[in-house]
Design goal:
Elements lengths: L1 H19 L9 E3 L12 E7 L4 H15 L5 E7 L4 H15 L3 H14 L7 H14 L4 H8 L2 H16 L7 E4 L3 E3 L5 H22 L2
Parallel strand pairs: 2-3
Antiparallel strand pairs: 1-5, 2-4, 4-5
Length: about 220
């Protein structure tokens, strides 16, 4: 028992020392996907945030994440992907992709996030949530004819299928989840600041790997 306790204590000290030095610890701060997933952002380091509009943790991360993305180097491409773990989460994904399809996601993404968590949308499910979002969007002067057409369009359906597959491929267990270059998945059981710091460190690691792979 004493040996096991000493071993555990040593492990904690090693992990603490690594974190203090700014080096993320695999299994504690992130996991490495084997094999890594392919990325769409050729020539750049791809960072993905898997999120769900009704997730309180995603909402809490959003202000820091928004500021962080503005400071990203030019060789980093940031993407938001709706996390889809069940049919109810797919409702939020459909909203996001419909707004993206009609060119409104940049304008209303953050205000919609705020409204969902401050005006009661977070408590709704399924069709009731979809109707609440539509009513709110209409008040923001979104072209609802275009939005309604986009909701069930082929392109949106395709993106929902792709996001569902990505959730499986990345072994998504919850949100928010950040990934780097299809290889690293930042664990959400650390603080918001630690998530972003870990992502920064893994971006640096991905940059080194890309440099090594060049002839």
């Amino acid at each position: 028992m004493t040996l096991r306790l000493s071993s555990a204590l040593c492990g904690l000290l090693i992990a603490f020392g690594s974190c203090a030095l700014g080096a993320p610890v695999e299994g504690t701060d992130y996991v490495e996907l084997k094999p890594p997933q392919s990325v769409d952002s050729q020539g750049k380091i791809e960072v993905i945030e898997f999120f769900w509009y009704r997730c309180p943790h995603c909402y809490a991360l959003e202000p820091d994440l928004e500021s962080w993305t503005k400071r990203l180097p030019r060789d980093v491409q940031f993407k938001r992907i709706p996390g889809i773990l069940n049919e109810d989460w797919a409702v939020d994904a459909r909203v996001f992709y419909a707004l993206e399809a009609i060119g409104e996601v940049e304008r209303v993404h953050r205000p919609l996030f705020n409204a969902i968590h401050q005006q009661g949308g977070v408590r709704l499910r399924g069709d009731a949530f979809a109707k609440w979002v539509a009513d709110w969007l209409a008040k923001q002067k979104v072209d609802m004819a275009k939005y309604d057409a986009a909701l069930n369009s082929f392109s949106v359906e395709s993106k929902i299928r792709r996001a569902t597959q990505m959730a499986r491929s990345y072994r998504l267990e919850g949100v928010p989840t950040l990934t780097v270059q299809g290889r690293y998945v930042v664990l959400a059981n650390i603080s918001q600041k630690a998530m972003l710091d870990t992502t920064d460190a893994l971006i640096g690691e991905a940059r080194k790997q890309i440099a090594k792979s060049k002839p």
